[in-house]
Structure formats: structure tokens, C-alpha cells
């Protein structure tokens, strides 16, 4: 197991990935190529296209990496230019991130992440006259941890977000409890490794809204048919069931087929998604 409690965003992440990651309702194609630009610089260019109904969205991302500095430059079909510069480990445990988007002048942000054996801290501030300040912190170990996540708008003088969470982990089980949406939503999640040899996993998530007094429940599972093929399935209390199969047909290149059906409205057409990711 990894040392330290990690960041606040890591609380419940294993269960979220099991229940939501790789499920695709659209058609997506991604290809990555690598080209050396120098002895010490690695350049990776990733082009992706997504078909959402009748709309086609595309973007090109260029990543330049030299020593501990990584620069990501992304251009999308709306002519937005996004840039992220990451400096990893300028001092032990610290990561510094600068990001901005053109032409959005208020999108600039500076972020610092610090990981310690008994703490994880993330702080960010917008680069404008009236920035939004974000802070999250976790205390504990890789077994027990507790944390909080807050955002403050200096323009209005109001807290735009305040969440809290705790997590318990052991070798094959992770349980998490978080209070989100300014205390309105309680989320509990469970992640269990049933059989490591076949990567068989089960997980569940329960959300309760205090304002509407409604509950949302989702359960899911994952199993590897062989070292290159994985199947996943999930269902929620609203009657929506989803499944996917993912095959690594060559190293780092994945082909995924997913589908979703509303069991309470069988007459409606099922949704299908395709994703193809190619890497050399």
C-alpha cells in the first residue's frame, strides 16, 4: 500500500473509478504519438475526437517533458488554448502547477500539492483581481484518514464549497464517507478486492440528499477474463444497468465497447459507446 493518506481527491477514488471510469455513451477515438525533440525532451502528441449525437468534438494535446517539468498544451474545436505547467518535486513531496486558458482571462490558477507520510495538502488560487481560493487537507495514514475541502470567493466574500470526508483502508477493502454540496449530500462508498489474480472487484456507492430526502444507490463489479480483457457491470436503483468490455489488443492500446439500458423503460433504445485508444 502507498504511504501517507494522499490528497482529499483520493478519498473514495477507487470506488468512483470502478463505478464510472471507462463507461462511454459516445464514440471516442484517441491516438498518441511520441517524437524526440532533443536529448532531454520527450514530446507526446495526443489527438482525440468524440462524436456526441450529431456533434463532433476534437482536440489536440501536446505534452513536453524535460526532467521534472511537464508542459501540456491543448487546443480544441472551439479554438480554446489550454496550458498546464507542472513542476514535480522541486522539493521532496511538493508539486507546483500553473494552468491557464486563452481567451478566458479569469482561468489562470496556481496550485501547490504537498504529500507527507501523515498529511496531504492542496492549495490553489486564481490569477486575477478577485480570485477563488481553494484549500483541501487530509490527515492520517494510508489506513485511516480524515480531511476537508473548501473554496472561498474573494469577490463575494462567500464560501462556494465546503466538504468533509473520512476513509478506512486495508489490503483488500476501502470504505469512505463524505459530506458534499455544503452539507446537503452524504456519500458512502465501498470498494473490495475479491480475487486479486483475476482482478475481481466489487463496489457500491450510496448518496443521500437531505434537501430532497432522496437516495441514489449504485453497485458495480469488475473481472478480468484474461490478462488483456476486462469486463465491468453496474446497476443503480433507478433501473439503469450498464456493462462494458475492454481489450488491450496491443500494449497500451485499448478498445472498449459499453452499453446502457433502462430496465424500467425497455421500449427505449439502449445506449452504446465505443472508445479506441492507440499508443505506440
UniProtKB/TrEMBL annotation:
Keyword Calcium tagged: no
Keyword match Membrane: yes
PROSITE patterns: EUKARYOTIC_PORIN
InterPro entries: Porin_dom_sf, Porin_Euk, Porin_Euk/Tom40
Keyword set, alphabetical order: Ion transport, Membrane, Porin, Transmembrane, Transmembrane beta strand, Transport
A Pfam family this chain is assigned to: Porin_3
GO cellular component term, pick one: pore complex
Subcellular localization: Membrane
GO molecular function, one term: voltage-gated monoatomic anion channel activity
Function per UniProt: Forms a channel through the cell membrane that allows diffusion of small hydrophilic molecules. The channel adopts an open conformation at low or zero membrane potential and a closed conformation at potentials above 30-40 mV. The open state has a weak anion selectivity whereas the closed state is cation-selective.
Family: Belongs to the eukaryotic mitochondrial porin (TC 1.B.8.1) family.
UniProt protein name: Voltage-dependent anion-selective channel protein
Organism: Helianthus annuus (Common sunflower)
The organism's taxonomic lineage, starting at the top: Eukaryota, Viridiplantae, Streptophyta, Embryophyta, Tracheophyta
